[in-house]
Amino acid sequence: MHKPRCRRVGQALGVLAVLALGRSVTTHAESAAVPKIDYIFTGQISLGAPASNDYLTFDPVNRRLYVAHFDQVTVVDVAKRTIVGSVGPIKDSHGIALVPKLGKGYASSGDDGVLKVFNLSDLKIIKQIKGSPDADGVLYDEHTGSVLVVAGDSKNLTVIDPTNDTVARTVTLPGTPEFLAIDGAGKVYVNIADIASLSKVDIASGTVEATWPLQNCKDPHGLAYDAPSNHLFSGCSNSRLVVVDASDGRNLANLPIGSYSDSIAVDSHRRLAFASNGPGTLTAISIESNSVVQTVPTFFGGRNMTIDPGTGALFVSHGHMKIVGSTKDPLNLRFGWDGIDIATFEPRP
């Protein structure tokens, strides 16, 4: 992922001004549809330089947050809000998957197409698995016991056996994959960015069982699955989110979100799905009614996130902003990013 280094400060200040209100933005019609759930900003965790990051993965057992951070994976103790270490070096860090029962983690290295295997206890790299160039999103599927890696430029999905850290199979996809979601029953769904579609793959056989169009969607990125409804939530770069029936690919709803969304998270307990958006918002969607119920202000550039499935806390990564240039002319102030921060948002009790 490549993010712009500078934007006019007015955009950022507008977002921060709304954030200072300390409340979510919800229309009267939306609040009538679903009981309101407030999300409050509870602070920042600074990761420092450089100002580039990608996916976040949360470990609910050890309460650690793993953040793809340019040439490493930065690991955070969320209870103490401190950095506990890092995994690296990595050439263009993207996705992270955890396999707790084996005590191992997997981090994709995009530039060289390598999957770095690391020890969860001391974060040291213990093996490298050669995959495909532009390795990107990574997930662990407990049902099949597989680590899954999509590679954009290579247009494929690699299935890894984590018991011996070998490639079990490589699946050719119909286009450029972006992110993936599993249903816990042996299927993985992959957003295909260049053809605005969603592919369904049987993990065990490596068969692409179907590819479904995503209507009114451009460049789909983030993807998440909700088991109780059997629905998929696909975020599109053109400010839309498509709700898809995972059984047959029907597009059930097409909803407005913010632009350049890169991550979708599902809170199955609270029956909400979230899209993190580039302009600095989180769009909250009711899973039951397939409707937007809230827009939560965050920070400019906050298009990546993950969720603590137990508490419902959301972790949104964004650039640490600083003023660039002279302050004598307020209308021409500019800001830049000199590091990464993790903003935390928690549901109000």
Describe what this molecule looks like in 3D.
By secondary structure, the chain is mainly beta. It is built from two helices and 29 strands. It has helices at about 10-20, 30-35, and strands at about 5-10, 40-50, 55-60, 65-70, 70-75, 80-85, 95-100, 105-110, 115-120, 125-130, 135-140, 145-150, 155-160, 165-170, 175-180, 185-190, 195-200, 205-215, 220-225, 230-235, 240-245, 250-255, 265, 270-275, 280-285, 290-295, 305, 315-325, 335-345. The strands form seven sheets. Strands 1, 2, 27, 28 and 29 form a five-stranded antiparallel sheet that branches. A four-stranded antiparallel sheet has the order 3-4-5-6, with no helix packed on it. Strand 8 and strand 9 (about 115-120) form a beta hairpin. The chain is globular. Residues about 1-35 have low confidence and may be disordered.
Characteristics of this structure?
349 residues, 2 helices, mainly beta, five-stranded antiparallel beta sheet
